[in-house]
Amino acid sequence: MVTVKDGERLDDLLGRPGKIIQSDDVFSFSLDAVLLAEFVWVPIQKGQLVDLCAGTGAIPLFLSYRTKGTITGVEIQSKLVDMANRSMAVNRLEERIRVVEGDVKTAATQLGHARYDVVTCNPPYFLANETSLRNQNEHHTIARHEVLCTLEDCIRTASQLVKPGGKVAFVHRPERLLDILTLMRAYRIEPKRMQLVYPKAGREANTLLIEGSKDGKAGLKILPPFVVYEEDDTYTEAMRAILDA
């Protein structure tokens, strides 16, 4: 019997049959996790995957519906690690998914270099010096701001973890695109696929999905725009297709 502690709740996984333990005290998963898990290439039958900045384990859970491989999440906050692993137990996925407590900056030393087929990451979006955007809640601040790891830390470690030819995928904000492209190439991850996500048609993009290949050949494909909501705030057909898969 898995314990759901005081202040926690058992939430649905947005169209999936599974559940996830969440709490108002920590940063809950958003559509970004759903979109990244759907966007990234994954080996279907077997393979080893890593999710950096795993939080409460949403991306590993969503990935589990697309791959039978093993997934390791890395999360620095012990409270979130505990919640994530109890969520895996709720979904009877303990044998395929584990979330370990660890620092992104040293994750390759902890898990092993060049061992993984896929690395995903939903990193903190905001720079540490953006004090006006800081949250008072420590868990929220760590999840949203580059206080414990930077974008470069995430990309460098992803490059260290992934095998040559393996895939690395990030979800971020469009305004960081040039930083992401520059850092990916600096750490031998060749950008191969990119997609911009729009809240509604005619609006500015607010999310960036990008995937690269370790030591891959040059050649970046720009996928069609992805729109999340119709004008009446219902999900678009494309978004419903993901949630109903």
TrEMBL record:
<dbReference type="InterPro" id="IPR029063">
    <property type="entry name" value="SAM-dependent_MTases_sf"/>
</dbReference>
<dbReference type="InterPro" id="IPR007848">
    <property type="entry name" value="Small_mtfrase_dom"/>
</dbReference>
<feature type="domain" description="Methyltransferase small">
    <location>
        <begin position="35"/>
        <end position="133"/>
    </location>
</feature>
<dbReference type="InterPro" id="IPR050210">
    <property type="entry name" value="tRNA_Adenine-N(6)_MTase"/>
</dbReference>
<dbReference type="Pfam" id="PF05175">
    <property type="entry name" value="MTS"/>
</dbReference>
<protein>
    <submittedName>
        <fullName>tRNA1(Val) (Adenine(37)-N6)-methyltransferase</fullName>
    </submittedName>
</protein>
